[in-house]
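Progress against Task 2.4 (sequence-to-structure conversion) is shown through the following example record, which the project officer requested during the mid-term review.
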Amino acid sequence: METRDLDYLLAVQEHGGIGKAAEALGMSQPALTKALRRVEEQAGLPLFERTVNGVTPTPAGTLFLARARRIALEYDDVLKEMEALRSGEQGLLRIGYSPTVPGSLVLGACQQLMTERPAAKLRLRRRLARDLGALLFAGELDLIVAPQLDSADGSCEFVELFHDSLVVLADEGHRLHRKRGLTLADLAEEQWLLPAPHIRIRQQVDEAFRQRGLAGPKLRVETDFGSHSLLHLLRGTTMLCVAGTESLGPLRGLRALRLGTEQLDLRRQVGMTYRAGAYLSPLAQRVIAVLRERMG
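Structure tokens generated for the chain above:
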């Protein structure tokens, strides 16, 4: 088996069919089919099965592809490391950061890095933590600055920068600001602006309602992206949403409700995450150090 065989397998999985994968790889369909058969013969089990829509991995194929993806990433890492040793170039650093992380922290560190290393190049991605994690494990990012990922399999390393708590925001004229001893039940009849159900924050809010025997939040606006500009939708309305306290600075007219963590616990750890065992370039190591220095 050759390393390119792994690329062939992963391409077939990504495109869901041999024809589309062959086109993307720039090779003929018979050649790709032959390569897949060769790998399956070595594995001793079929790795894909045909469906009406193309091909899908078998149970054995799913396991094989997971290992193949890790091997491919490790191979790319060692090539990057060898290239850095050979050329002595600063190279490219790919950083992702979450909208709930203060942009001034990440961009300030990037500005310092570019001043220190004039030849360095950066590629920045701003996404929700879940999407950043997917890009990280796909090998498209070197490190991310975001709330800690839900990963208990040892596949990543986490370096904490700070811990804080998200809050429930409302227009400053909302009647709930005048209520004492606010509970989650008081929020049950309000309308909400929340992320999609697969986002961790939404899951935490839904679970808190469920534990208290309450129906889920009444959704008025649902989003699959994070941006402070969304908070403009709250002003002058009775809607509620969850956000970081840094959102209160640039957006006037919004205040955090006085809701205790015993009602809704949105405390979190925020830091830098990178793949366990991955090659960390000198640039990556330096930006990690700069971020830690800036947090004191």
